[in-house]
Design brief:
Layout (H helix, E strand, L loop, with lengths): L1 H16 L3 H19 L11 E10 L5 E11 L4 E6 L8 H12 L2 E9 L6 E6 L1 H18 L7 H5 L5 E5 L4 H70 L10 H19 L3 H16 L9 H21 L3 H21 L4
Parallel strand pairs: 3-4
Antiparallel strand pairs: 1-2, 2-4, 5-6
Length: 350
């Protein structure tokens, strides 16, 4: 059964993406590597969208020389995956294959990839004179000499300096070489992920500290709210006892009775308005959900974090609007400030 699955997987990959044995071997390696990354993704709990990495690669060519590549990659914040490649003209056809491979690795962010061939001479297979071009130059020089009565001799070194006097024939990059270049870009993306992991760990640490602070403040708000409601209920009980002291059959209410009735209505409204138990329960639930995002093996979690922070902002705004008690209002403002910091840091997470 296992052998059948492997054969079926190889057949599917080869039919879909590969045109040679070299490409097949490379893309099958990529698939195994991607599976390995998924199984070990716990190491990459949180990845920052910003990072930088560099590397060099030596790739054997058909003329028995080695092409040396200098690679650099950096990523910046972006809502989606974007990629800007700066490649030598001889490698321009590899931009799309490289982009496909890196998109599977990096998920989000604006990626800038720069590949440079440091030993361009390794690509030169032969140098031949362009006889037709040189003859055109000599004919033009002869016309100029006759026209202006010039007798200067044209030297070989001067001819060789003329544009396109020599033709450089470059080594053709076969599929094995192209696959090795794509693999070098893939290896560089792994280094970028390691850099993103280090920065992501710092972001996660800061957000977790803000979660702890918000948890403490919302507990204080709950305690103060319950205490405030208790005080209002005691005041309401006192008002009710005073109202009950007036005769029930009294035809016209006294000024004092009217004032007590108004105070009763105010207290009932305040008790109903300040009941923020539902909002604090939801706020705590969102805090737990936000904390759990840092324990999942899912790679792309930045959008979820941003959405949860929006929900937390909605709940704390409701709490602040419902309760005008000074201490509670001050704590709500502190929580909003913590949420803004967490939102800014969360936007840096993939």
């Amino acid at each position: 059964m296992l052998k059948y699955k492997q054969q079926h997987s190889k057949k599917r990959i080869k039919n879909r993406t590969c045109t040679s044995d070299a490409q097949f071997q490379f893309y099958f390696w990529i698939q195994r590597k991607a599976y390995y990354n998924v199984m070990t993704r716990k190491k990459y709990m949180v990845l920052s969208m910003t990072g930088f990495a560099t590397s060099t690669a030596e790739i054997a060519l058909a003329n028995n020389s080695k092409m040396i590549l200098s690679l650099s990659i950096k990523s910046l914040n972006s809502r989606f995956f974007e990629m800007t490649c700066k490649l030598p003209s001889i490698l321009s056809n590899l931009e799309i294959p490289i982009q496909r491979v890196l998109q599977k690795q990096l998920h989000r962010g604006h990626i800038f990839l720069h590949i440079k061939i440091t030993n361009q001479e390794a690509l030169q297979e032969s140098v031949t004179p362009s006889i037709h071009t040189i003859q055109n130059y000599l004919d033009a020089i002869e016309i100029i000499q006759k026209k202006f009565d010039l007798h200067d001799k044209v030297t070989l070194s001067q001819i060789l300096q003329l544009p396109n006097a020599l033709q450089n024939e470059e080594v053709e990059l076969n599929e094995e070489v192209e696959a090795a270049i794509v693999k070098a870009a893939y290896d560089l993306s792994v280094q970028l992920i390691q850099a993103q992991q280090k920065e992501g760990a710092l972001l996660a640490h800061d957000i977790k500290q803000q979660l702890t602070s918000m948890q403490s403040k919302i507990e204080k708000i709950q305690t103060l709210s319950m205490q405030f409601i208790k005080e209002k209920k005691e005041a309401l009980t006192h008002v009710m006892s005073l109202l009950l002291a007036f005769p029930a059959e009294q035809e016209q209410k006294s000024q004092e009775q009217c004032l007590l009735e108004a105070k009763k209505s105010t207290l009932l409204y305040e008790i109903e308005k300040i009941d923020i138990n539902e909002e604090t329960v939801r706020f705590n639930s969102h805090l737990i959900n936000l904390a759990s995002q840092f324990e999942t093996t899912e790679t792309a979690k930045g959008k979820k974090i941003d959405f949860i922070i929006q929900e937390l902002n909605r709940e704390i705004n409701t709490i602040a609007a419902k309760c005008s008690q000074i201490t509670i209002s001050s704590l709500a403002i502190d929580i909003k400030s913590e949420l803004e910091k967490a939102r800014e840091q969360g936007q840096n997470i993939i």
